[in-house]
Write a structure and sequence with these properties.
homodimer; alpha/beta; Rossmann fold; Alpha-Beta Plaits; four-stranded parallel sheet; 13 helices; 15% strand
Chain lengths: 354, 354
């Protein structure tokens, strides 16, 4: 059994590195903090993520530097230490290839990808519970030793995450599908709004808000992420281009019907596969709409009444169209508790719509 | 002054037609309900949206039939009555062109587009308050009489909506931008998930859920909507194809950087232009994250505590990654109330992150 004893050296004390440091420090594991920017490491130390000066050799090194530098830092840490080395980059083929170009000594390296984050960045955004219940992908390559894989699994579990083991290639195709492609599609859709007159944007509803939300992410960081996964992403983008051409051809015809319906139908089939809460497909939940006056305390009253019905609200969404003086809250609950919920809310004076 | 006296004939008693009927009936306006399917009209009548038998000639006809039939029904109603005629279709050029092919008598017609809806459909989903505070676009054409425009404005205001006047062409380009293109992008992104192994979907986060949500909409209805707006949409889709090609070329290069960052940067500029609540750009709000245990009553407790701080929650979002035993709620409030909110929540034991 490979135990996580520490010390753990964290190279790169941004949001992810600092959060790992905070989680491990909380468990009593000694954490060494290293960052190319001394100020950044100092900040991470000050909020309790570990120490900049640790005399004992690390058992494990976690490389949490920006995507472009990951491979080089992995190779460097393999050379400098006898420790197991992992990284936290969101793409796995490129760091492995970059490291392999610099060293053959890769048995002690196994990639990993803690799938939690935030629109915030930097050490001060770090949180000990960032990975609590999150998914942490572990991506062994053919030379990874079983000990290395086991130790990285211990690290993820220590941070409170649920581990998923995938090959490097599978991981990168998966994140291309569920993260990088959606990001690019969001950015392309949002990009068409740059030159739109304000009167056009006044007609915006919840749909365009949802589709374009992630497009607001940092362009430099996303350039690195997307570039690092160009292999997996190119295939998907070519698939999108093919479908886009089908849409354009269909729209040019007198009768666009069948072809467009088939493309939109594929969209429905894909959308319902995206897991919702607890990995359950979101079609398992029933949603109701409740109209709420837009003033303080109304949400509190609504949720108190919902709780009184015994229903657990699994998901919720506020629809707030521009200029709308009343809000609309969509509550999703398990099918078994919907009748009771609607009954109690109606009884207590809420305008409820199924 | 053109007053809305009624009777108002509603042709097509689905969600929109029935909701208009309910809103007008509530105000004491006589509403006549007509539908190609007698059962549908009967259902609308039973829930109080109006009557199937009205002896008096209508003052106003509202055509709320499926997109493909709107133009023909407008022309028919102009021929059958002396009333002002409007429609509720989400695209305005095609109904006008279709009607113009059948009649020259278009002074009494002015298009309109009540911008509210629901994932639900049919008369039983109808609600008197569906348009309360929503945007209702009015799209006069060159032959529309001022009286017709004024009466349709009265209709929208009677339903509680805020009116926006746009030319037919401007309206269609606007909805192509803020509704139809986002829908197609969402469908194309979701379509790539159809053949993905389940292990890939396990890595899904909130981003892909947001981007693909609207792709779950009815493919037949959306085929009609999108086909009816093929003119405006084709230009935007060609723009997207151009950008997609730029992304593909950039990804194929050794150094994708500059080009990708510029495309992603355009996405950021577009995303921040999408109005949030009350037409305010969403960057005017400050968000905080609160960790909540996943059991009944926690949201009630959270919102009670938030209300106690005096802050009005302007927007909220639950992040519920698969398998995560704790939830995370993102609350958006005005900058002026964030300190007070964080103070009160922290004091009451919540784990709050800015």
């Amino acid at each position: 059994m490979t135990e996580l004893r520490g010390p753990v050296r964290i190279v790169g004390t941004g949001l992810i590195g600092t959060s790992i440091g905070l989680a491990l420090t909380r468990l009593g594991v000694v954490v060494e903090l290293v960052d190319a920017d001394p100020e950044t490491a100092l900040m991470a130390e000050r909020i309790g993520a570990g120490s900049r000066l640790v005399q004992v050799e690390p058992q494990l090194v976690v490389v949490a530097v920006p995507p472009d530098h990951v491979g080089a830092v992995i190779a460097e840490q393999l050379r400098l230490t006898d420790a197991i080395v992992t990284d936290a980059a969101s793409v796995k083929s490129k760091p492995l290839a970059d490291a392999a170009a610099l060293t053959d000594d890769l048995a002690r390296y196994v990639g990993s990808h803690p799938m939690a984050g935030s629109e915030r960045s930097g050490p001060l955004a770090g949180r000990a519970d960032l990975f609590e219940g999150a998914t942490w992908a572990i991506t062994p390559h053919e030379k990874s030793s079983p000990d290395a894989v086991e130790l990285v699994r211990r690290l993820a579990e220590a941070a409170g995450a649920r581990t998923v083991e995938l090959s490097v290639e599978d991981h990168d195709l998966a994140v291309a599908r569920v993260s990088h492609l959606p990001h690019l599609m969001s950015a392309l859709a949002a990009g068409t709004l740059v030159d739109a007159p304000s009167s056009h944007l006044e007609l915006s509803g919840q749909g365009v808000r949802d589709v374009t939300r992630i497009a607001a992410g940092d362009p430099r960081l996303w350039t690195q992420i997307v570039s690092a996964n160009s292999g997996a992403l190119t295939g998907l983008l070519e698939q999108i281009r093919g479908e886009l051409d089908r849409v354009l051809v269909a729209l040019g015809k007198e009768e666009a019907g069948e072809e467009l319906t088939s493309i939109l139908g594929q969209g429905v089939s894909g959308a319902v596969r995206v897991p919702g809460k607890h990995g359950a497909p979101h079609i398992d939940l029933v949603t109701i709409l409740v109209t709420i006056p837009d003033r303080p305390g109304q949400l509190a009253r609504l949720f108190a009444d919902a709780a009184a019905s015994g229903a657990n609200v699994e998901d919720l969404r506020i629809d707030h169209s521009p200029g709308r003086p009343v809000g609309e809250v969509e509550l999703a609950v398990k099918p078994g508790s919907v009748d009771q919920l609607v009954g109690v809310l109606t009884e207590r004076g809420w305008a409820v719509h199924r």
